[in-house]
Amino acid sequence: MFYYIFQYLEDTFHFPGAQVFQFITFRAALAVITSLIISLLFGKRWIKYLNKKQISETVRDLGLEGQMEKQGTPTMGGLIILAAILIPTLLFARLDNVYILLMLFTTVWLGLIGFTDDYIKVFKKNKKGLAGKFKIAGQIILGLVIGATMYFSNAVVIREKIPETEIVTQNITENTIRSNETANYFAKESVKSTKTTIPFVKNNELDYAILLSWLGDGYQKWAFLIFIPIVILIIAAVSNGANLTDGMDGLATGTSAIIGATLGILAWVSGNIIFANYLNIMYIPNTGELTIFVSAFVGACIGFLWYNSYPAQVFMGDTGSLAIGGIIAVFAIIIRKELLIPILCGIFLAESFSVILQVSYFKYTKRKYGAGKRIFKMSPLHHHFQVLGYPEPKIVQRFFIVGIMLAVLTIITLKLR
């Protein structure tokens, strides 16, 4: 909103300083500050309201140390996160940007699904909450919307690399080209594409359409048949992974902030033609605007962590966990870095696989030997370490350290090929 207001003031009245709102970095800084303020101020009042109305978490007795002390802690704190993301984005981002619109839709849609789940648990006293099939259906619908928009919208494009002899330098002079090297730059025209980035590979782009090459000539026009299901799978996997990670005070919030900051860096360099060329990565026009959204996202997570750190004053519930997982997945898909998710979201991946392995192995051994056996002391993975006797704050902090290491590894994949 402010972008358009100050653009009008500049165009009509030549208002001093109005041009500063043209800069993505300035608006991103305002977004993160505003997000933090909203989280801290709104969060305090919302927690008081939840306590007053006794809207609290029903904690299962898992026999873990300190587990039952969490009984009575307010839940549905994810609304703090949603407000701290949506308000700064609406204030400072360009709302004619297709990527911003997709991220806003993702936030609201998954927030509503999570809110419905929490509402059923808290107010209807149904511990199971929203049936799993409805959550999956909601994630499939989101995947269809994101995938179809990414594939069919003319606003979603990339710039292909071309040889130096055909280059349109666009803000890069020939003086930057060394006489003893061949420089590659980007074409003048943007094109539709289903290409994505492959980590650790030189000339690292994969076109999903190639998976249908067995169809023969013209197979590219059927690329949506493979692209959209992949989008759905990624969204469901990461969203549910974040949901499983939300089992200790501050764990999901902190790791999500680390992931969000990393995605912000990737979005900014991918949307900047100079840095995209220097790093020899895919240039995606207009994705730089996503820096404003992800700044609000990081600010929301850090602001919520103020109240969610051990001992938590509030839990985010599915309102927050489903939303932040979906946001991370869609964001990575938009900037064509979804194949980096197993590295960047390694914590989510480990939590999800620990549950899958635990359940699968238990069922297998029960069927074969008549008595089920377990790989981990308890799943998800963070509870395994808790059963081993590690204090909750130490587990969370060590997961943060691992998350930071994975984030650094993700960033250096830009040059490590």
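Above is the first protein from milestone M3; the second protein from the same milestone is given next.
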Amino acid sequence: MSSETHGSMARHGAPDWAWYLGVPVAAGAWWLLYTQLIPFSEWVTSLVPVAPDSHTGEAIAFFVYDVPKVLLLLTGIVFVTGVLRSWFSPERTRAILAGKRELAGYPLAALLGVFTPFCSCSSVPLFIGFVSAGIPLGVTFSFLIAGPMVGPVGLGLLYALVGWKIATIYLVFGFSIATVAGFVLGRMGLERYLQDWVRELNAGPPADLPEERLTLVDRFRIGLEQVREIVGKVWIWVLVGIGIGAAIHGYVPEEMMLRVMGGEAWWSVPAAVIVGVPMYTNAAGVIPIVEALLGKGAALGTTLAFMMSVIALSLPEMIILKQVLTYRLIAIFLAVVAAGILATGYLFNLIL
């Protein structure tokens, strides 16, 4: 592209000074909105003629809080990764993470997930950003698994609930599942099972402009275009997925789960996983259920398998991921992660 064409492109749209002023203002507005999500959800719930602690009240509060939270995260993260992607094409990113560096990428991605306080659906925006940036698919899966499964909030509550020994074992197993599952998925060559639009996004450089000629404003434009492209395709499924999760969060009876997980029959672990997958909550939300189940005699391995499946294999997460992954890739992802969770549940029941 000639310098004349580049100069012509730069003159289109808002002037540069508007971008330099608008991006920090938008970032401040984003942060203000994000910090007000809890008061906002409580205020909206108070407008509905139902008790806040009722099933309906809890479901409404959950939906009103999680929808803007996930959409805000999706918008912010996609914008930032879009800007960063203007410096690192998919080819360059893959080269950085190739060979030994790629092998190191699996535990590093899992470690990033451990320190990321997101639930499964909140981890999806980062997953989409990683995939769109051309980071190897297996590495992104390591993050997606570790983020909700062994995040800091859930771990902190688990340490307080069952003590440091069991919580540490859980951390080790969760981290190992994320790393090994990501490695296995990465070695299966599954990129062809990404949705077409994601593969097209990774097919070339992030813009027509040569990298060395991009200004900061050009990079901001790339980030905004990424938001329009990705959020525009995913937002409706965020609403659908969290809507299902809110309904389940408010109405699933705890007594039913106790009947399934109270015994130590061989089928109790897979049954707990099957029961957990359709549910949706973050680690902080499922810990009270885990505490109640353990208090009523549920087997520890079975209960932790249930916990892992709720926060790492939730149905709403799969609905949102459907916009990025094909059904075949989702099925493979479920099978690999579920195998690790089942192994963890059986091992805990065997040794404890």
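Note on the second protein: The two ends are 66 Å apart (CA to CA).
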